[in-house]
Amino acid sequence: MSAREYRTASSAQGSLLVVQQAPNVAFGDQVLIRDHLNNLRNGQVIRTSEDEALIQVYEGTGDLDLENTWVRFLDQPLEINLSPEILGRIFNGIGKPKDNRPPILSNVRRNVNGSAINPAARTYPREFIQTGISSIDGLNSLVRGQKLPIFSASGLPHNRLAAQIVRQAKLVDQESSFSVVFAAMGVSYADARFFQEEFADSGVLGNVVMYINLADDPPVERLALPRVALTAAEYLAFDLDRHVLVVLTDMTNYAEALREVATAKGDVPSRKGYPGYLYSDLAEIYERSGRIKDRHGSVTLVPVVTMPSDDITHPIPDLTGYITEGQIVLSRELHNQGVYPPVFISPSLSRLMKDGIGKDDTREDHPRVANQLYAMYAKALETRNLAAIIGAEELSERDRRYLKFAEAFDSQFIGQGEDEDRSIIETLNLAWELLSMFPKDMLTRVSETDLAKYHRSDK
Amino acid sequence: MNRTDKQGTIREINGPILTIHLPGIRNGEQVKIGELGLFGEVIALKGETALVQSYESTEGVRPGERVNGLGRPLSVELGPGLLGSIFDGVQRPLDKVFLESGDHIGRGINLPALDRERNWHFTPEPDIEIGSTLSAGQLLGRVQESAIIQHRILVPPNLSGELLELAPEGEYRLDDPIGRLKLPDGKNHKLMLYQHWPVRTPRPYLRRDHGLSPLITGQRILDTFFPLLKGGKSAVPGPFGAGKTVVQQQIARWSNADIVIYVGCGERGNELVDVLETFPQLQDPYSGHKLMERTLLVANTSNMPVVAREASIYVGITMAEYYRDQGYDVVMLADSTSRWAEALREVSGRLGQMPVEDGYPAYLASRLAAFYERAGRVETRSCGKGSVTLIGAVSPPGGDFSEPVTAHTKEIIQTFWALSKELADARHYPAIDWVGSFSEHVATAAEWWHKEISPDWQHRRKQALGLLARDAELSRIVNLVGPEALSSAQRWELEGASLIKEGVLQQSALDPVDTFSSPEKQFLLLDMVLMIYDRGAELIELGISVQELTDLPLMAKARRAKQTFSSEQSDKIRALMEEFKQAFAKIRLEYAKFKEHAQ
Lengths: 459, 599
Known about the structure:
The complex is a heterodimer of chains A (459) and B (599).
Chain A: E1 5-6, E2 9-13, E3 16-20, E4 30-34, E5 40-49, E6 52-57, E7 70-73, E8 79-81, E9 90-91, E10 109-111, E11 122-123, E12 128-130, H1 134-137, E13 142-143, E14 150-152, H2 158-168, E15 170-171, E16 178-187, H3 189-201, E17 208-214, H4 220-239, E18 243-249, H5 251-265, H6 278-286, E19 290-292, E20 298-306, H7 315-323, E21 326-329, H8 332-336, E22 349-350, H9 353-356, H10 366-390, H11 397-414, H12 424-435, H13 448-454
Parallel strand pairs in A: 9-17, 14-20, 14-21, 16-17, 16-18, 18-20
Antiparallel strand pairs in A: 1-7, 2-3, 3-6, 4-5, 4-7, 5-6, 8-10, 11-19, 12-13, 12-15, 19-20, 21-22
Helix pairs in contact in A: 6-7, 10-11, 10-12, 11-12
Chain B: E1 7-14, E2 17-21, E3 29-33, E4 38-46, E5 49-54, E6 66-73, E7 75-78, E8 86-88, H1 94-101, E9 120-124, E10 133-134, E11 139-144, E12 150-154, E13 161-166, E14 170-172, E15 179-182, E16 188-191, E17 195-198, E18 207-209, H2 220-225, E19 233-237, H3 244-254, E20 259-267, H4 269-278, E21 295-301, H5 306-324, E22 329-335, H6 337-350, H7 364-372, E23 376-379, E24 385-394, H8 404-412, E25 415-416, H9 421-425, E26 438-439, H10 442-452, H11 457-481, H12 488-505, H13 519-542, H14 546-550, H15 554-564, H16 570-598
Parallel strand pairs in B: 8-21, 19-24, 19-25, 20-21, 20-22, 22-24
Antiparallel strand pairs in B: 1-2, 1-6, 2-5, 3-4, 3-6, 4-5, 7-17, 9-11, 9-14, 10-13, 11-12, 13-15, 15-16, 18-23, 23-24, 25-26
């Protein structure tokens, strides 16, 4: 660590500080800033030249006076200390304790920016995780090492759903073995508190590490937070052999902080003022999930993205969807009808489902049942639209059957209790109960063997 | 070749873009940056300073550190050993990188793309004589690279001269000279089993040729409805979740190309792992050997440095051209060209260039066009005809096809496979929208189909598309006034369209039988559903109700035929068609009797 302090700050604006006559500072270097009250702030070098460095200050430059600002370059990137002691603790966005307990002491220090996992070192995720939620397990299955976001919108119960997933997630026939990394960016105090109480009530608090940046904490800190949290997750997974479930909430706040800083730096905006590198930046975060050859642990990622104005084509959900391996989409319409969880299956998808389900993982009919349910529901929605125009009484016998199916599907299959933990077999049996509302001839996506075995007409 | 005499220093670092002081460096030259030895490329010159883009993260690099010029532009190694490998965006072998730096990709790793230790059995061409003059690109000899691919060793396309020496048949490593050439300027040049080529320069060929035969992918909507020729250019645009990657992977698996180059450009790591894990097990339906023996991967996943992403598709296409020059039909899949365009945008933004549309630089369209132009079927210098077929995925933001990358790509390509969110949401896969897609190759493809499969092909294709268009029209009416407003004939048209959609267009990549459809099976399925429609229409004209036909248990069989019968069981599809004909004849007969009776 360099002992030299520079008192040559030449401009301060928003979160950016320029220091002059600071030669040859390393790009990405961490910085300690002492202000006129001797308070310390943290920062990072984001542009450097032979005589000038541009610093992004996590706490912002408010109340700095250029005369009395001392800057010290630490000669190291942003690193955090890691040990098994992090479980049960609460930290801020740059890994400093937020629970009035001492900092973590350890000789394991990791650069939070990580580096890309070599695709040749990865192994394909294929172990089914049972969340106990039918709309996920049956139709959009989650597997260990997957990144599957929840696309939500303000006022929808994404937090409750995320908490339920955390509570119930387990491998089939096994008790929960997940450690949880909870990363909150720009969330309200109430939301942070909701999760803390959830974890406490279900007795998992000792297996959870939390990184929290509240809505009134500095926005720049949000940029470091997911990287810090994922560094901890990687440590738990690949050093300590644990299976780690990471909940990132809310990625929209993260992206907004990124836009704020990018605009201040003068980056060329692309869509809706977000910088052109939003995709790469989000990918740096999401791609840190996965499984690695010969490592026991895994990092499974469940980011929450609230869609501004319920718009799925907004850059944040849009780019997220291009990176993640599917998405669970919540619908305001279902929510208003009182369906919990209001998962709208049509736009929802799990890309890794195909290899995690079927004969050896869940049940042999699972892939075809999911396909059939999707097809029937799509047709049923079409029929519902038609009924809205011409009236249900005008519909044919066949079409009315679809309407009845849609209703039963929404209320019984999608809808379930917040504490209801359905096994995958229960979910599949329920699916057959609904599919049996149709005669066998209409179910062309399941096999004839499936029909003989599971269709209820004969029973 | 590695000239390190040009040395300079770093002046400024702004993310992946550095300003360096290095008089005499060339634009486009590769550089080695700082103590870590990061690789980069000069992208602009201003007096004695140059702008450099780094292929690796610049964290921890300081102004004042040294930069060395390497004396040549970004180039790839071309030679035996490429197939079956996975490279990063600047052709570093990722399996070797894994051994060197572990689970995560380290920085400043300098590994040759091709294995120097491995022995290859080289057989010189029998008719080449010492002392003869060899032309650029001439065939020198052969190496069996994989069970199915014979690697043809060529004189580099920019060299020619008198052959002084040529090694006899035997085992050679890549660094062992296999011959010597006296160049026109009197210098001697050692010939190796491999050569270098700068990635941004298209490799030369004798002349362009026309595409003649369709690329068979085994996917019904592609081959039958929107065919692509070998040597053609196509794009697969679609919003996320519409199935771009599955379409691309299906083509990688089932197309009748000799070699497939799959470039994962800014996409998911797990998708490449999927290919890496499954292709060594899957069988190539044409050769019977493992798919990995004809496949080559270039991986710049979305979290890898963005500058290398820009390079990755050039690295891919140069390797494709190299195999084309050996007379092979190569398919290159670029997933996704939008990420490549975004990499351009990111670099141009950091350079402060004036953005035009959505922040993209003004040269986006010309770069895209120049890239796609490297596809084509050509007469090679010494190995007959070869082709590069280019298939680019496009990821339009918000699924909006009017955005710059999709719009410019659409101008350039000949076959457009548009993916639709609505179809994907209804789990109609592949979600290729028959209204928005097009192919300029139908007439040429028809010649092949008529000769090889059936003279009815083009007629049936047209009929099916017509019926699908009617379906869209009638569905609008139904949505306005309800199905009761339709006549029986119109309702039968809807049923016919639904048969085409479910029995032909929908194809499951996951179903072991349905995943691949031979051209014959494709045609038979189409022929069958249209025959059902035609005969049914006749019955309905007689007065038989639509319901009576749709209630036939046989109808479910027609919808399931694609999964029930494999490509080898065309006789069974024909038998099913017979069953239909008989069932319809029976209905006709019974109806006639009933009518008679009623009178």
